[in-house]
Amino acid sequence: MLFRSLETLALEGAGARLQACARVSKACPRVRFTLLEGQTPLVQAEADAAGGLATAALCLERCRPWSAEDPYLYTLRAEALDGQGRCLDEERVQAGVRTVTANAEQGLLVNGKAVKLKGGCVHHDNGLLGAASHRGSEYRKARLLKQNGFNAVRCAHNPPSASFLNACD
Fold this sequence. Notes:
Number of helices: 2
């Protein structure tokens, strides 16, 4: 299974409308999506995997939107199901519930609020530690950038590590 996305379609009052999407093999006719807060299931939906792609709508009555000031993450579990409803494969990803839009009048809007980007260009390496990605050093780098006022990063030359992207989330 390949998790594709969790998209926030709209923030509505205290709740949110979300869309989950996953690609599965043709041996898996259905996918079950569960949004978790910690280990607690909040909402669940199943979808047919037509052509190997499953898409489901999830509605949260109450949510904590992600922002740079409050980077709250939920866990989305996607389970590939066989014809009898048995789980053949499972994948979990962390994701924030947030909307991001941009327009010429207001600029960048995160959850409907204007955000000024303050950041810089950051290389993939960790100085004297080299190009290997170490979870602790990636989190330290992200923490130091945030403490120095960054809310945006452009990654230079090489793709960033998954650990750095997780630290930024």
